Amino acid sequence: MIGKLSLTWPKRLEDNPSYGDLRRLPQLRQEAHRASLPIRLRPVLHHILVLFPRRNFVLPNWQLRGFLHRHKHRNADGRETAQVYVADPSSALPRPVRELKGFAKVALKAGESKTVEVELDRDALAYYDEKKGAFVVSVGPSSRELPLVKEVELAETFSWTGLCIAAPLGFFFVNEWALRWISTAFRTDPIQECIKISSTNMLFQFDVEETLKKLSMPQKVQLLAGLGFWHTQAIVSAGIKSMRMSDVFNGVPSSCFPSATGIGSSFDIELAREIGDALADECRAKSVHILLGPTVNTQRSPLGGRGFESFSEDPHLNGTIAAAYIQGVQAKGVATTLKHFVANEQEYQRFSSSSEVNERALREIYLKPFQIVVKKANPWVMMAALNRVNGIHASENKYLIEDILRKEWGWKGMIMSDWTGLYSTSESIKAGLDLEMPGPTVVRGGAAERAIQGGKIFPEDIDARVRKILELYKHALASGIPFNGPEKGVPDTPRLRNLLRRAASAAVVLLKNDKKLLPLNTKVKSVAVIGPNAKRAFTSGGGSAELLASYTVSPLQGIDAVAKDAGFAVEYATGATTFRYLPVLDGAIQFKHGDTKGDGALLEFWNHEPVENWLTSLVNGGTPVWSMTTRFSFCPLIDGVDNTKVNFTCWYRYSAAFTPDRTGNYKFELIVGGRGTLFINGKLVIDLTGDVPDGSPMFGAGTVSAQGIVEGLKGGEPVTLEARLSNQTFIESGTAYETRGGVRLGATPVISDEDALEEAIALAKKSDVAVVVVGLNNEWEGEGFDRPNMKLPGRTDQLVSEILKANSKTAIVNQSGTQVEMPWVDQAHTLLQAFYGGNELGNGLADILFGKTNPSGKLALTFPKRLEDNPSYLSFGDRSEVDNKVYYTEGIYAGYRYYDAKHVEPLFPFGYGLSYTHFSFSNLSLTKISADGHFVVRLMVTNSGPLDGSEIVQVYIVDPVSTLPRPQKELKGYLKVTVKAGENMQVGIDLDRDALGYYDERRRAWIAEKGTFEVWVGSSSRQIFLKGSVELKDTITWDGL
């Protein structure tokens, strides 16, 4: 015998200890098991093993030896497993009859015997309160065959306080005794070393109500606002430490996954959960308790600056992908922050604009993804939007926060303001807004204490807000993430890179392949790679969602890697100038600091001006108080600077050697948060020390750009760059963001648009195949501004059109977070939408281009032919009829719902995407709708093409006889399935009352009206292959989740 069952095999399902509960896994996160403790604990531990593979767990170095047991085996040739079970018959608390605590596998020849040693430690004997007494040790080949029994004595009680948690304790929501037991079962974390804490009581018995009683009113008020940019306040005397939160601007480079629109376009729930799991690892490595994402606002317009941060225009897809992402993060004890609550769809006048939206549209479109996430994933934190909703700021909107979120939906978490998005004291506290961010406080603190004195708010109002912060703090304690711990990067492993690469491929959508050019044949002799987005790796849009990527792979680098293996030649030409600001210098700069050299630049800081007129001279001025290195030439200094050494008002120097890749004249650019200068080879080239207007970068707090030309640079020969900078004027200006300013350096060869285009055309003509990579980037899509139109920048359209004429074997790749116009689309026979693909953008794209991965993405957004076709065209941004108001005139007809209702043909419809193989749907069947609205859609998916591939089955519901008007169809279910070539797969998709209902403003409730509903199944919103119908016998009405 070799194998042994690793789980008990019941005779029937009803014999399983969790029958009736584990079949409802979504509720596991919110409900305790109904079985008694010793029985229910085992299934919980089983799920830990499933979620966190055994290889992640390593015994801690510190260990108390219990005893050694020796047992002789006599057997035929083969292998046997000695299993050691421990029983505690005299326990004061109920315990399992026996528990596996050790095992050893041994290979024996016939008639041979061996001594087997199974070493046990204190965990083999322990539950939370360990005691003196006798323990029974049994050994045998299975849990029911235990021929050897021995009693061992534990003479003295002992306890310990060092522990490290691998299981995400908050995930289980079982009672505290069970939590303590689990903590002794798995004590190591796959990321960080074991944490020593002062008391297990502090970790598991932190009493929110008792702590609340002990806090003074000034202490409570102190907790209501943040400590600086990324932390909550600490009350040391009460044992409350500072929780750390993170967006992405921090000093430690991280893994960058595809933008949300790319993840949404994967339609892949499991991938979203995997990404969440990996992000939790990043957070734990950086000692982050609260991740400030994801975003589930709805893309009303292609022009929204932050549109790339949300998953989809469809509320169901938006909410379900976000829920899976959150499940992955919070399963490892890291809190997520669902944002921005709610109706935050534009950047224009984002602090003051009021989103005027009717109740039905608010419920069905804009609140719906939040509602789905609360129901499926229970995010521990939410972030209120900056804007007003129907006249009232979201951060002080009692109807949204208290009436809907907390009372109607029953959500129990903590809600914070967006950064500088809190505008009132008593109103926001009464409305239920718990935490003001960032610190120091502007509208709480003394203002809150005065509001109490004036009777505008009461002590119980403060208690309600502080209670939510303390409940979140209890989650942070249970996570085992250290407070004020070090920020470390996650190890760069093949597994992580594989996930990043798979995600990048999954985010690519094949839009056209009319001549079957793709996948490209690696036997070609030459490939021309053309376009401004090919050489640079645009991993993300801009703003707070953009991070310091641990590494990047550009499309050119990804194609180059394939070329090296296959042996074909690759040449590059930019073709067009499309940048909003000159390209950053990442990858072309090096620093030297003493004997240390490396890629990137050196940043040095002083707390006072080193010498008079330091900015405009090259005079040195003493030793800096602190220094750091960076790989980047765009450094918004929001985080990553040592606060204990560097003042908020400071002077700093950015120095590096820049190596141009070609000979000629170069144009350089400088943007600063404050004032600064740029010296090149010791000469002053750019001076931004005078009266300089503000510009768009750095959330609108940077200067306008200034440029200068340096002539006669030689390719491969470095030149010295030194930028001298100060944020003094930045701080004195009273900006909402109290940071150390920032710097952005860029450069490009001076080349005319005509010359660049001719160079690209010539390259395309001489090459076997051309790949043109164009699109937007973090300068055109980002926080703080909306796009003026849907057009591609510069002379992109001309470039694409000319290359299509020059080479008939041309594949066009558009990279953008949201929709763009494509006036050349009829010329192109091969077209892909790549979105922003994260670290592995280039490799993920190359895998699609050359057929290593079969494309499976589907558009999570409708691509209109022109901006005027978009439903929000006349009521978005500065086209709104009234200043500081934007009317959501499209109502419930957002996204594809509008194109269906208006019979407008889009460029590419929602849910659309091609594959290198062919799928068909058949055999549709529908179960009857149950009394509570549940039914199942079943069908057969067949892969009749030549390649293995994945297809997304999309289920749309049609209500042809509704009392109130409804969209023609609405996505209510989907499933990604992988089917091998020539095979088929039976698919089932569960739907419930939410798939049938709409919101009735008059009844202030959801309603699914009795009657016949049509069920449409297809591969996009405009490609429906199967239709059926189901009947709801009785009308269902409900509120809440």
From TrEMBL:
Q: Which Gene3D superfamilies match?
A: Galactose-binding domain-like, Glycoside hydrolase family 3 C-terminal domain, Glycoside hydrolase, family 3, N-terminal domain, Immunoglobulins
- Report the pathway entry: Glycan metabolism; cellulose degradation
SUPFAM superfamilies listed in its UniProt record = (Trans)glycosidases (SSF51445), Anthrax protective antigen (SSF56988), Beta-D-glucan exohydrolase, C-terminal domain (SSF52279)
Read off the Pfam families from this record.
Answer: Fn3-like, Glyco_hydro_3, Glyco_hydro_3_C, PA14
An annotated Gene Ontology molecular function: beta-glucosidase activity
* Top class in the EC scheme: hydrolase
Q: Where is the PA14 domain?
A: 596-761
Q: Which domain of life is it from?
A: Eukaryota
**What InterPro entries does the record tag this protein with?**
Cellulose_deg_GH3, Fn3-like, GH, Glyco_hydro_3_AS, Glyco_hydro_3_C, Glyco_hydro_3_C_sf, Glyco_hydro_3_N, Glyco_hydro_3_N_sf
Family that this chain belongs to: Belongs to the glycosyl hydrolase 3 family.
Mind telling me what this protein is named?
Answer: beta-glucosidase
What is the species of this protein? Dentipellis fragilis
